[in-house]
Amino acid sequence: MEINSAKFICSNTDWKKCPDIHQPEYAFIGRSNVGKSSLINCLTNSKKLAKTSGKPGKTQLINHFHINNAFLFADLPGYGYAKVSKKDRANFQDFTLKYLQNRKNLICLFLLIDIRLSPQKIDLEFMEYCAIKKIPFMLCFTKADKLKKREISQMVEAYENKLFESWEILPEYFITSSINNIGQEEMLSFIAHHNQSFS
Ligand code: GDP
């Protein structure tokens, strides 16, 4: 699928104020600094649609983008940033979770995981939450350019082993890098495929 246009629509903290557009939506979430903005920019071939910065914890809003006038991306607040106050963290988690539970046109949540890290409690807990609430999600391992092929396989296998401790069926995953576009085609094909069956 070619990306011909990608436009910012709006930011907010209330799922009820999210764009009233009956088109398929894909959301992105992950720990701060996981590479979420970079991946959105990579998928949409834009340099700064989503703000990329070295500073963690900046995106504390639900940001919506209209892609090809045909589907939506929702950039959700990063989680697990220590410097955000407990109150702020609880607040944005609350509105993010409300969004995830109520957004009718949400096709898939891409849950981003830094491929270099061993399974993190916060990510595992969040996956558990998605499973319980029946929120469809896929894992996106990010920054694959930082590892060799063999190391990538080892990290994914370690992750799968950890998940197998409590999961019977493993979530599907993409391996991505925004530096050299690994996984971009696969993710866009996945999106194109789901767009076709949206009604
Ligand atoms: P966000 O906080 O999750 O939105 O993360 P950003 O997209 O702002 O990226 C955080 C940092 O990781 C930045 O310094 C990026 O340049 C870097 N980064 C993001 N994606 C990649 C990637 O695929 N490969 C590498 N090597 N660095 C990345």
Describe, in plain words, how this protein is organized in 3D.
The protein is α/β, with parallel strands linked by helices and about 200 residues long. It is about 35% helix and about 20% strand. The chain has a seven-stranded mixed sheet, with helices on both faces. Helix 4 (about 150-165) links the parallel strand 6 and strand 7 (about 175). The longest helix has 17 residues, at about 85-100. It is globular. The model has no long low-confidence stretch (mean pLDDT about 90). The protein binds guanosine-5'-diphosphate. Guanosine-5'-diphosphate binds near residues 36, 38, 53 and 179.
Ordered list of secondary-structure elements with their pairings:
Layout: E1 6-12, E2 25-30, H1 36-43, E3 62-67, E4 71-75, H2 86-102, E5 106-114, H3 121-133, E6 137-142, H4 149-164, E7 173-175, H5 184-196
Parallel strand pairs: 2-4, 2-5, 5-6, 6-7
Antiparallel strand pairs: 1-3, 3-4
Summarize the structure.
By secondary structure, the protein is of the alpha/beta class.
Q: Return the average pLDDT rounded to an integer.
A: 90
Overall tally of structural domains: 1
**N-to-C series of helices and strands:** EEHEEHEHEHEH
Count of DSSP E strands?
Answer: 7
Shape descriptor: globular
Query: For the CA atoms, what is the radius of gyration?
Result: 16 Å
Largest sheet: 7 strands, mixed
Query: How are the strands of the biggest sheet laid out side by side?
Result: 1-3-4-2-5-6-7
> Which spans have pLDDT < 50 for at least 5 consecutive residues?
none
**Structural class designation:** alpha/beta
**CATH-defined architecture:** 3-Layer(aba) Sandwich
